[in-house]
Amino acid sequence: MGSNDTPSIVPLEQFKKTQLLNDLIAKFNESYGVPPTFIVCVPGRVNLIGEHIDYCGYSVLPMALEQHILIACKKSDDFMINLVNLNPKYPPYKGNISSLSFNRNDEVQWHNYVLCGIKGIVESSTEKTLHGMNLAIAGNVLPNSGLSSSSALVCAAALSTAYANKINFSKQHLASLCAKSERYIGTEGGGMDQAIAFLANKGCAKHISFKPLTAEDVKLPDGLAILVAHSFAELNKAASDHFNQRVAECRLASLVIAKQSSLQNWKELTVLADVQKELKISLADAILKTKEILVKEVYLKDEICEILGLKIEDLNNAYLPPNIWNSKYFKLNQRATHVFEEALRVSQFQDICKHGGSPKGLGHLMNLSHDSLRDLYECSHPQLDKLVSAARESGALGARLTGAGWGGCMVALTTEEHGDTLISSLKEKFYSSLNTGEMKNEPFVFRSLPGNGAVILQ
Ligand code: NG1
Ligand code: MG
């Protein structure tokens, strides 16, 4: 398959007829009185390694899950967008495609993710106005779990809009425009989730690089299994400032390293990978430089302004997301060290997979990644740490948090033979003492094979 191709169209009869799909089609019929003309299917993902580094310009290594978001769609004759969700927790929505607006101060609701995807296509299209659509939505990706249900929803909405309006964008283009438009939610993420959603191929994880966006197949050594398990600690990332605080810390670390290294263009160097490139140094040397330049445990905003020679308002306007304007403290050394070391681990992980190296080595890198996210990046959660420890004690080759963190899921690497034993052991060691409440019927611990990217069913 070429790298610039458009998402595949699969005959609906060839797609596995699941209960979810049948229920979705029934919901569409019941809501709009006609059947949908097509359905899009976009997977969630689990990131194997490379956490919190996509927005710093470094490559990541996720794989698509079999769990997905489905959107059933039919173009309408007017400009109205109608949304219904199979899950009654998410109320219906109605809006006009020519007046999509986002207010950063409003609480983020589920339909905002759909509107982000639609807006991405509206902004990239040369057509003045696009058609409205009737949409019905369903999914089985656990929400707020670091499995990227949010991006799957954004990407599915964008793909529905493009296909309904006969716009042929490549997978790469769709991934990039969705990464950009998901930022209307208010979190300034990188492009990993949208890239894997469109570029995944069944059977392989992907080494994803940015600028330009490329995705290279990574085949895990034979005989290994990937296990995903929920910690039952949940964070609604869009409703907290943690994520953007980390983005801000990485940008400020870049600027300070660049300025203190006397780079003339330091004002444009807000991305750690760009600073490394500009300094023409290896990742190992970038780690040393961080230690040399970012000597303080914590930086006050005033101190950063003084180093950079900027007024607070200028720093805010040029470099910080609005929800971070009131932050006073920034940990620059710890965040930059995590980013450079994690970038190094991604390339070591890929090397082991390429050259048939030891699965133990892969597990070790995953363990180091988690420890760094917990200690340097401070984006774990005590319950997630407990789950990771339980996996390691139960014989996993490696285990780490996956996705943004502060709760959500862990990904563990084990052998095929040991997979079921690991699940039973986690149930006994970790889940038995938890109240699994609302989630008790959801698959909160499961094995997954690398799944496919987005497709259109018709
Ligand atoms: P999740 O946890 O899926 O929301 C977020 C970002 C990614 C990446 C990871 C951390 C978005 C849409 N996604 O993922 O780009 O930065 O955190 O590695 O913001
Ligand atoms: Mg997300």
Tell me briefly what this model is:
With 458 residues, this protein is α+β, with helices and mostly antiparallel strands. Helix content is 40%, strand content 19%.
Describe the structure.
The chain has 458 residues and is an alpha+beta fold. It is built from 14 helices and 15 strands. The protein has helices spanning 19-32, 110-124, 149-164, 171-182, 192-199, 242-260, 272-279, 283-293, 301-308, 312-319, 332-354, 359-375, 382-393, 419-429, and strands spanning 8-10, 38-49, 61-75, 80-85, 93-96, 133-139, 205-209, 214-218, 224-230, 299-300, 329-330, 398-401, 409-415, 445-448, 455-457. A seven-stranded mixed sheet has the order 1-15-2-3-6-4-5, with helices on both faces. A hairpin with a 7-residue loop joins strand 12 (398-401) and strand 13. Bound molecules: 2-acetamido-2-deoxy-1-O-phosphono-alpha-D-galactopyranose and magnesium ion. 2-acetamido-2-deoxy-1-O-phosphono-alpha-D-galactopyranose is lined by residues 51-52, 54-55, 146, 148, 150-151, 182, 187, 189-190, 192-193, 237, 403-404. Keywords: ATP-binding, Kinase, Nucleotide-binding, Transferase. It comes from Frankliniella fusca. Residues 357-431 form the GHMP kinase C-terminal domain. This is N-acetylgalactosamine kinase.
